[in-house]
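Thread: "does anyone have the structure for this chain?"

Original post by V.I.:
We have the sequence but no experimental structure in hand. Need at least a predicted one for the grant figures.
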Amino acid sequence: MTQTLHLVGEPEADRILSEDPFALLTGMLLDQQIPMEVAFDGPRKIVERLGSIDPGVIAATDPEEFVALCATPPSVHRFPRSMGQRVHELAAAVVRDHGGDTAAIWTAGEPDGREILRRLKALPGYGDQKARIFLALLGKQRGLEAPGWREAAGDYGRDGVHMSIADVTDADSLGAVRAWKKEKKAAARAAKE
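Reply from O.Q.:
Generated one for you, tokens below.
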């Protein structure tokens, strides 16, 4: 799929995410405890420092060197050591389990949505919710046509919602997703009180 993503709002970062499946997978991995666009800008920083976002290159890099690269200011993540290690583990898993072909996670053997979800959840750093959001991102913005992907993605797969990065296509939709998340956090706080 050649459609350019607009997840970061910075042309080079969005180009890398659009063209490289491992960059997109890495951005999703980094999307925790920092703003979405900062997380998805992480792959661009890795490319600038390492010269590549290829999982084989990352996996072959000494883990401590890779973590140091992620910690170089501006760091790839708010928690550069732990997240740098996770990115390295993710790259190693893609090389080991998918022959270095990230897209094979959602294309090899023509999997349905449930199987893609299972494969995503098997990746380091990918729990159920992160896997569902990434599956929705593939379906909504990367042209994934696997049968049952919407059902496997759950609420994130619905049309007309603004719940996650899967629904971000421009600045307005980013604002709508932020508003939804803020509302959800406020409701959770109110329920605790």
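V.I.: this helps a lot. The mean pLDDT is 95.
O.Q.: and The domain at 11-158 is CATH 1.10.340.30 (Endonuclease III; domain 1).
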